[in-house]
Design a protein that fits this description.
Layout lengths: L10 E4 L7 H4 L7 E5 L9 H9 L3 E4 L9 H14 L3 E6 L1 H13 L11 E2 L8 E6 L11 E6 L4 E6 L7 E4 L9 H19 L6 H23 L4 H18 L6 H13 L3 H30 L13 H14 L16 H8 L3 H4 L8 H11 L1
Parallel strand pairs: 1-9, 2-3, 2-4, 4-6, 5-8, 6-9
Antiparallel strand pairs: 7-8
């Protein structure tokens, strides 16, 4: 069995109302000034938290809001705020975009090199400030991952910064922060988390130490995601999706994702399709492509999802497996055809060429994907 190394957050608090523990958590850390990275929609939910922090004598600085999947320019705006205010604590409260920005800012606040020089693995300096991540969606698992993803406007490609220094000191998983997330966003982010788990379990770097996180994440998301889409106030369902997303994030560092993400990235970078929607779109078709080299594990995934009876020894064809996954995606209210999100046939070759540049993830796929293969997958998904 191959060697593997896992990095994890320093401390995790999980449960309804746990965000209220944040002010007390900061006592004894020697914090004087905290920079809060969040979104315009989340800020109103945090007034009580901010007030509690200030009662302990801490200064709260609100960074420019991160209201979309972040570009390099968005990151630079928050970095400039951090370099001016010099916080000793960075808190990211939001979805994966917010937490990714907060993570990068926490390591680059005292470093003035161009952001593009940090794309890659182990390129950032050691973090000198405290970092806390609080997800308000169950999707990216960024709070558990050493990865941060930024859109490079120059190339229209998503770029990664990967380092153990991006893992937070503290994570708060509070399902009450998710109850106002709309059904479509709940479905899309939940599918992102599910694809993290599925791809970690079915890629060429899959490892027994990570398999159990991936399978547990699939089970939790299968149980909670449909219910959370139907009833956002179901705290048990929200907790299940939040923990499932966290487990998906744990898989990203040591194992990572593969072909689904590689082919989803251009849909976001070139056409602005939300990352979770893009993953949901591509999942059935990449599974169809990979089926023959990973079918036993795909059958295990279907059983954990409740889409194939546990005691069923019958096997599905690649076509049937694709159709079952398409049905699961559409059952959450998400599209499963590229044409349904405005992609046109003539753009498919450009998407295939762009996907080939996501070599970091293509290398994890259990079957080699060439540019002609990528085009065929996009055509199948059209």
């Amino acid at each position: 069995m191959d060697r593997i190394q896992l990095y994890q957050a320093g401390s995790v608090i999980c449960g309804p109302g746990s965000i209220s523990e944040l002010p007390t958590m900061l006592q004894g850390l020697g914090i004087r000034r905290c920079l809060v990275v969040t979104t315009s929609n989340v800020k109103p939910l945090l007034e009580g938290v901010f007030a509690g922090i200030k009662r302990f004598g801490l200064e709260v600085v609100e960074a420019p809001s991160v209201d979309r999947e972040p570009t390099v320019s968005d990151l630079i705006r928050v970095l400039e705020c951090a370099r001016t205010t010099k916080p000793d604590l960075v808190i990211g409260i939001g979805g994966g975009s917010v937490m990714d920005v907060a993570k990068i800012v926490s390591v680059l606040a005292e470093d003035n090199r161009p952001v593009h020089e940090y794309f890659g693995t182990d390129t950032v300096p050691a973090r000198k400030v405290v970092l806390i991540c609080v997800p308000t969606t169950a999707g990216t698992g960024s709070e558990a991952s050493p990865n941060a993803i930024i859109l490079d406007e120059q190339t229209l490609e998503k770029k990664a910064i990967i380092s153990r220094y991006l893992l937070p000191d503290y994570v708060i998983l509070d399902p009450e922060l998710l109850v106002s997330v709309p059904p479509r966003v709940t479905a899309a982010t939940g599918m992102d988390a599910l694809v993290h788990c599925i791809e970690a379990y079915t890629n060429r770097r899959a490892h027994a130490m990570v398999d159990e996180f991936a399978l547990a994440g699939i089970r939790l998301l299968a149980a909670g995601l449909p219910k959370a889409v139907q009833n956002g106030s179901d705290l048990l369902a929200r907790t299940q999706t939040l923990i499932g997303s966290y487990f998906g994030g744990l898989c990203l560092g040591p194992v990572g994702t593969a072909g689904v993400h590689a082919l989803a990235y251009p849909l976001n970078g070139r056409f602005g399709i939300p990352h979770g929607v893009a993953n949901a779109l591509m999942l059935p078709y990449v599974v169809y492509f990979n089926f023959q080299v990973m079918k036993d594990r795909y059958f295990r995934v279907l059983r954990e999802l409740g889409l194939l009876p546990v005691d069923d020894v019958a096997v599905l064809t690649p076509e049937q497996t694709k159709d079952v996954l398409c049905g699961f995606v559409s059952g959450l209210g998400l599209p499963n055809r590229l044409r349904d999100v405005g992609i046109t046939w003539e753009t498919l070759p450009g998407l295939a060429a762009s996907a080939m540049r996501v070599s970091r993830l293509l290398g994890n796929n259990p079957r080699l994907i060439t540019e002609s293969d990528a085009l065929a997958i996009y055509q199948l998904a059209f």
